[in-house]
Amino acid sequence: MRFLMTTKGGDLAPPTEAVMAEMDAFVEEMTRAGVLLATGGLDPAGTHVSASGGKLTITDGPFTEAKEAIVSFALIEARSKEEAVELSRRFWKIIGDGEGDIQQVFGPEN
Amino acid sequence: MTSQDAHRAVDAVWKMESARIIAGLVRMVGDVGLAEELAQDALLSALQQWPESGVPDNPGAWLMAVAKRRAIDHLRRGERLDRRHEQLAHEIATRQDTSEADLDEALDDEVGDDVLRLMFVSCHPALPAESRVALTLRLLGGLRTEEIARAFLVSEPTVAQRVVRAKRTLAALRIPFEIPVGPDRAARLSSVLEVIYLVFNEGYAATAGDGWMRQDLCHEALRLGRLLAGLAPGEAEVHGLVALMEIQASRSAARTTPSGQPVALHEQNRGRWDQLLIHRGFAALLRARQCGGPLGPYVLQAAIAVCHARARTAQETDWTQIAALYESLAKVLPTPVVQLNRAVALAMAYGPEAGLALADTLVTEPSLKDYHRLPSVRGDLLVRLGRHEEARREFERAAALTLNGPERTILLERAAACAEAAPPGTAPTLAEAASAFLSRDDLDAATVRSYGQTMSRLRRALGDGTPLPDVSAAQVADVFTAAWGGAASATWNRHRAAVRSFSVWASTQGLLTGDSARDPAGDPAHDPTRAPAHAPTRDLTRDPACGPTRDPACDLTRDLTRDLAAGLGRRPEPRGRTRPIDRPHIEALWQRPDLALRERTLWLLLHESAAGVGAALALNVEDLDLAGMRGRVAAGTGRESSGSRWVRWRAGTAELIPHLVAGRGRGPLFLSDRRPGPGRPPAPGDLCPETGRRRLSYERAEYLFKQATGYTLDQLRTR
Questions:
Q1: CATH code of the domain covering residue A84
Q2: Which in B231, B273, B562, B571 has the greatest CB count within 10 A?
Q3: Quick check: A33 and B227 CB within 8 A?
């Protein structure tokens, strides 16, 4: 099963070097084990698109609720939701405080 | 958290951590079985404590710490507390003081290699393939026995038995916990790769209806492969296998229709291919190539898969490149199936004649005699050459051989399409003639049974719908070579006699030359069973038919009849006693470490009992008297005889048989490796009700022995 893990922005201080190093090691380990398929950071500003009645409305960010914006993602391959949660626990143990979501990704077979 | 949630959390942690924990414990205690027990104890503690306390911060280190304490207790408690144990316990105990974080770090460094060692041990070639698979999924995948059983469609006790036996074998053979080096390494590594690919293929063969666990085997194999690639990054074949699996897995959504019908590669919707997996596959193949060295079978297969994955449409496929890769593959993996795939690639690259020329050479290949893809590929190529009538027969044969229902439907549709393109002749078909031959009332039951075996093999190999006049002696000879080329002379001669008798009978019926019926100039209403007065011969290999009044009992000479057995020489049958194998050779045989349990048991039994091969293979589990070191078999086979006799063995066999029985209650003692192949289903008595496998055939047993020793099984008897 694939899961998309996302983290939301906040007014947290930027991570220390030690945290970065630990996170790099974690990402490397998870990639090597084939668990982490893709990961990246996201520009919280982004561009908002809304389609209505065939008309597209495009609004450039940033938006007011920075806390709600998704700022990073990881696509993982796990055997169960519990395994995804366990990986997430390890992630947050390194990062510290914050919030995010775990959603199963449905592939063509689902 | 509810206790159910906690259990699921523990299970998830266990699956992620068990390999590292067990690997670390094996290094400490030196025994896989004990290490797993200790790890299970730790798991039990987690199941008891975590629902109360919550999952600890570092669950892996927590489990490891508990398991280590158990290990120390165990070593100290041991009855034979020798100095080594004492020292070991001390070492572990002093290291236990380190904090959990340090421990975890230490784990990461050392345990990587430990996990690799564990893979080499659990995939050790001394274990039978099924045990290697079960043990690996259990130790490295953290799968429960029940999950493995469900995935492989076998019973839970069967899996448990395999695991227990494997652990016992590892302990008995004192397999060291190490990463093999030197000349041994390549063979040991290929054994690991074989296990992973076996797991993958088992999952890949599963269909939608089979449920999640079977399909999940693909993911599990991929996970193990990726893990191995991380642990042994310098091995090209490891990356090759990973690349192959990533790309095959990328097609999983496209390779069946929603209703479960298989979709051929060239007809798949490539938009449903998983691009993420494809790119992982590309990257893995690139890493394999960077490792250098000669191209191994997995790297070459991955390169072929990459060729397909790179083509945006089926038409863009680079068949020239694929054909070249198959040529290289055929050199390192010279199997008939690879040759068959190469034939397809050649046909795509250079036209159907090129492919057919290669495919035709495979017709006499014994291992392909029941393989539906050979006739199906040949049918395909014959259609492209406009030879519809021959193609129709090939598709019908393929349909009769395949076990897959949807595939059979497709093949029969193709056969029907060929029939429309070229209506079949009105000459009697092989099936019609064979039935008429066997239903004569002057044959006794035993003869009908014996001839029936020969005829059904010919029908299966040549096609029921083949017009009898089209059957040539050369084709019959090919069938014989494939089916009975390796059998005992008496078997060969028995089938040969059946064909001779059939030839004589068919000639007297005028069935062998029905050419005018197929001749466009001939009368379409011509009665094919009527003997033509002057039968035209279609080619020089055929002789004119003899007259209808000829007495079948008379000795027909070949120039009077078209003898279908013309290409079959009579084989000399051994007279008197077979020369037994020398004692030194026999002794050396038992010392060989590479013998599978079944073969070791059968051979030892034949040697100790001096029983006939047929009698030994006829043994059933329910008729064994283990304490009495004997087993009962029905006396005589195929003849009018009743009663039974005993096959008696000695201590060596007696020790092995319980392992081979492995908890089964009935059915054949010696089972074939595979479930029954296509073609005739085995007689009920030859099918194991518990495993679904058929009785080991005489031919296969003889073949394996010949391969291993160069002798025949008969020569094992002591006299």
A1: 3.30.70.1060
A2: B562
A3: yes
Mean pLDDT of B576-587: 74
- Selected for mutation to probe chain B from A32, A92, A102, A104 (highest B CB count within 10 Å) is A32
Range of the structural domain that residue A39 is part of: 2-105
Q: Please give the CATH superfamily to which domain B583-716 belongs.
A: Intergrase catalytic core (1.10.443.10)
In chain B, residues with a C-beta closer than 8 Å to the C-beta of A79 are 12, 15, 216, 219-220
Between CA B60 and CA B87 the distance in angstroms is 26
Q: What's the complex ipTM?
A: 0.81
CA distance A77 to chain B (A): 9
Q: What is the biggest distance separating any 2 CA atoms in chain A, rounded to whole angstroms?
A: 50
Nearest CB partner across the interface for B12, out of A33, A34, A86: A86
Task: Please state the rounded mean pLDDT for residues B632-650.
Answer: 70
pLDDT value for B356: 95
Residues of A whose CB is below 8 A from B272: 108
Number of domains composing chain A: 1
What tokens were used for A58? Answer: 């495009």
Residue A86 with chain B: CB contacts under 8 Å: 9, 12-13, 16, 55, 59
Locate the domains of chain B by residue range: 3-180, 425-573, 583-716
Express as a percent the part of chain B with pLDDT over 90.
Answer: 36
Confirm whether A110 is domain-assigned. no
**B272: distance to nearest CA of chain A, Å?**
6
Nearest to B15 among A33, A83, A85 (CB): A83
The confidence band for B711, taking pLDDT boundaries of 50, 70 and 90, is: confident
Helix pair B183-205, B145-152: axis angle to 10 deg = 70
The predicted pLDDT at position B689 comes to 84
Residue A4 three-state SS: strand
Residue B16 CB burial class (10 angstroms; 0-12, 13-18, ≥19) = buried
Token pair 């990881």 is found at A74
Q: What is the rounded average pLDDT of the residues B340-369? A: 93
